Amino acid sequence: xxxxxxxxxxxxxxxxxxxxxxxxxxxxxxxxxxxxxxxxxxxxxxxxxxxxxxxxxxxxxxxxxxxxxxxxxxxxxxxxxxxxxxxxxxxxxxxxxxxxxxxxxxxxxxxxxxxxxxxxxxxxxxxxxxxxxxxxxxxxxxxxxxxxxxxxxxxxxxxxxxxxxxxxxxxxxxxxxxxxxxxxxxxxxxxxxxxxxxxxxxxxxxxxxxxxxxxxxxxxxxxxxxxxxxxxxxxxxxxxxxxxxxxxxxxxxxxxxxxxxxxxxxxxxxxxxxxxxxxxxxxxxxxxxxxxxxxxxxxxxxxxxxxxxxxxxxxxxxxxxxxxxxxxxxxxxxxxxxxxxxxxxxxxxxxxxxxxxxxxxxxxxxxxxxxxxxxxxxxxxxxxxxxxxxxxxxxxxxxxxxxxxxxxxxxxxxxxxxxxxxxxxxxxxxxxxxxxxxxxxxxxxxxxxxxxxxxxxxxxxxxxxxxxxxxxxxxxxxxxxxxxxxxxxx
Length: 490
Hints:
It is a single chain. The protein is α+β, with helices and mostly antiparallel strands. It is built from 17 helices and 20 strands. It has an eight-stranded mixed beta sheet with strand order 1-2-3-4-5-6-14-13, sandwiched between helices. Strands 8, 9, 10, 12, 16, 17, 19 and 20 form an eight-stranded mixed beta sheet that branches. Strand 2 and strand 3 form a beta hairpin. It starts with a strand and ends with a strand.
């Protein structure tokens, strides 16, 4: 270890081991805070309020062991993006702010048997057809427009509803986290306003950093695990990144307002009201958990419909059935989620049920864990980490150290370096789009140039470095790298 401390605007971090930095417990902190980063990433993480926010998180009642910031961490709403906090499910609390507004924003990867050579020459037709057929952008418009009864069914059943209605096959459920359905989802705890916002957005990307990207596999680092995941070099895969749209946003907002009214005493104990939390066991905690699980199901259906529409687009462009092209779901992982999970919490092996909040973080369970789908249990859960439009993305597997270090979690992406406003001031969308096509043969289509500017490659941290730290720590091990070919966004 080259240094033992790192000073960042009055916050001192002590190096516990390589890539693990700790903000010691003091004052009203209930536990220490930990940042998992190289010194290069730590230099970037200190540039906004991330360190202050992860320190504030340690004040939440019932927080266990330590609050954790992943290598891609950056400033969020109250709780940093890239944050993990495990809160006691009996004596702690659950925090909508520590889950986030876009409940179950997540990514899924679909593999194919197409090679990059077979795709070349079809890029323009493919990106145009995907953009035309997959709804994106702000506001309404989805693949399915539904009445309230259908929305309730989606909220309760998740991808099982999509299977019954011809938008999925059985194998899709088997390769999705929780098989695409959260137990304990309660549609009655989702407001009518949230349902009204969601009913016309089922099967839509939305805007911001959400995207659909056709990629080629450039590297396979672990041949055995790559084979188990069905990945090989030069293969075409599709990555879909989106969440629960307006329904999830409204659900978060609804419960933040309710907490402010009903649990002001707890709120007054916290250094930031954006960490608003409901005490475990309270009616409001139970209501939020039911509503959040329902929004999680909505997001899974959203990604499932987009994936199935993508299959149909590929069929038209390549004049083959999607089954012939073996367009199969590799895996779907959720971000922005709080799950009841049982973890070992101290050296004597005590097991405790915790609300594990992963905000902009990915579950990364290792080989042998019973919650890893049977197809991957021998090698570990797939983890998908998208980079920017001009950088590679990665497939990892849950590492053997993840349960000990991070409650079974790792990073979820590259992590932003600059705000959307700053990005639009520094980049011109048309220039970014043209540069990507000219220099890297990446074809991008978006609803506006501003969206492209907000997501320019220079806006993000180095995804290679984020993944390297995850791999070195053994919380998420590198399996394969992919590189963009076509990208559509809102």
